[in-house]
Amino acid sequence: MSIYLHFRAVAMAEIRDDHGWLAAFMFEAWENRVTEYAAGLSCSINKGWDFVNDLYTAAAPAADTGVDDPRTLPVYGGRPVPHTPEADPSDPPMMLLEPREVSAAARFLSAVSFDELWAVVGATFTAFGWTKEELLHHHRDLEALYGRAATAGHAVVKVVWA
Q1: CA 109 to chain centre
Q2: Beta strands in the chain (DSSP E)
Q3: Tens digit of each residue's pLDDT (9 = 90 or more) over 111-139
Q4: Of 158, 162, 161, which is closest to residue 22 (Cα–Cα)?
Q5: CA 145 to CA 157: how far, in whole Å?
Q6: pTM over 0.90
Q7: What count of Cα atoms within 13 Å lies in the side-chain half-sphere of residue 50?
Q8: How many distinct helices (H) and strands (E) make up the chain?
Q9: N or C end of the chain, less CB within 10 A?
Q10: What Cα–Cα distance (Å) separates residue 37 from each residue in 17, 47, 80, 120, 126?
Q11: Quick one: 119 exposed, middle or buried, by C-beta within 10 A (0-12, 13-18, 19+)?
């Protein structure tokens, strides 16, 4: 079984803070993922997003920026989008990362040294079957997505597809 964490950049003005609406929006984005990946609007991580988060939290804590810890923003950052009473309870969990947090995540991702992080966690991750190349691929995808979203002043919506 595959399970994905799907990331989609979107202008705040274009979305509704409504779980049902966002679930439909994200499902359409998932259905169009090949086109959206090519356009730089989205990316996803299959099963291993917890390792990507662990990779980032291996970085030294940043100075207080007024947002959540930038190390945690790319994968788990943002606020949960609550189910509304009329929402389908089977809709997947979602998080919304607002533009200010997207910018903080983009700054973190562009400043962090992947090689330095890998030097800290690589042996442990390799024991779990992860390769440096796989995690570097995820890092580059996230760095590009967050960089473009921050430049555009966009939010990032995250959803788990199982």
Answers
A1: 11
A2: 4-10, 42-46, 79-80, 94-97, 155-161
A3: 999 999 999 999 999 999 999 999 999 99
A4: 158
A5: 12
A6: yes
A7: 3
A8: 7, 5
A9: N
A10: 24, 18, 24, 30, 27
A11: exposed
3-state DSSP call for residue 160? strand
- Reading phi first (left if > 0) and then psi (alpha if -120 to 50, else beta), residue 103 is in alpha
Is the distance from CB of 5 to CB of 158 less than 8 angstroms?
Answer: yes
Average pLDDT over residues 61-80: 82
Strand partners, 128: none
Quick one: pLDDT at residue 83?
83
Phi-psi label, residue 94: left if phi above 0, alpha if psi -120 to 50, beta otherwise:
beta
* Lowest mean pLDDT segment, chosen from 26-30, 61-65, 81-85: 61-65
d(CA 113, CA 58): 11
* Residues 86 and 20 sit within 8 Å (Cβ to Cβ): yes
User: How far is residue 149's CA from residue 131's CA, in Å, rounded to a whole number?
Assistant: 27
The strand pairing partners of 94, in sequence order, are 159
Per-residue pLDDT reduced to its tens digit, 24-62: 999 999 999 999 999 999 999 999 899 999 999 998 876
